[in-house]
Amino acid sequence: MALFLATHINKLDKKGRISIPSSFRTVLTLGESQQFVAFRSYKYQAIECCTLARMQQLSEGVDQLDIFSEAQDDFTAAIFADAQQISIDGDGRAVLPQILIEYARLGESAAFVGRGATFQIWKPELFDSHQASARMRIKEHQASLKLVKEEHEKR
């Protein structure tokens, strides 16, 4: 599986057009799609972005919740009702909807932040602050990760 990696700062024009980082376009086109899904983050003042396949996985996760439960209603309202499919043109640009631009407080530039299977779009200064806080929390809690063993290593 290809991953969205690194942070890229790109210019945003007055019409909401922005170049998608080439490494991100490569990941998006692996599924032969010239588009991605974007919605307002319910956790940060940023735009959450993913492939259509990832959105399908989110849908399947929500379907595991009790039907008509408050949790299911909340997730569908916060994610699916807000999600928009964004097309990428032949020049590698996309037009971000104004509602998303305003929510993330984007100005003349935006930070594309790789998050592995997904990516986010942030106002660069807000992401710098968030990243510094995240690094501090990891250091304070001495957090660590466990690597998931590949299938052939488990045998």
UniProtKB/TrEMBL annotation:
Organism lineage string: Bacteria, Pseudomonadati, Pseudomonadota, Alphaproteobacteria, Holosporales
Q: Which domain of life is it from?
A: Bacteria
Q: Member of which family?
A: Belongs to the MraZ family.
Q: List the Gene Ontology MF annotations in alphabetical order.
A: DNA-binding transcription factor activity; transcription cis-regulatory region binding
All copies of domain SpoVT-AbrB, residue ranges = 7-54
Naming one, the record's GO cellular component terms include: nucleoid
A Pfam family that this protein carries is MraZ
Which gene is the coding source of this polypeptide chain? mraZ
Does the keyword field hold Transcription regulation? yes
The answer on whether this UniProt entry bears the keyword Nucleotide-binding reads: no
Q: Which UniProt keywords apply?
A: Cell cycle, Cell division, Cytoplasm, DNA-binding, Repeat, Transcription, Transcription regulation
Write down the Gene3D superfamilies for this protein, in alphabetical order. Transcriptional regulator MraZ domain (3.40.1550.20)
Enumerate the subcellular locations listed in this protein's record, separating them with semicolons. Answer: Cytoplasm, Nucleoid
- Output one GO BP term: negative regulation of DNA-templated transcription initiation
Organism of origin = Caedimonas varicaedens
Q: How does it assemble?
A: Forms oligomers.
According to UniProt, the name of this protein is Transcriptional regulator MraZ
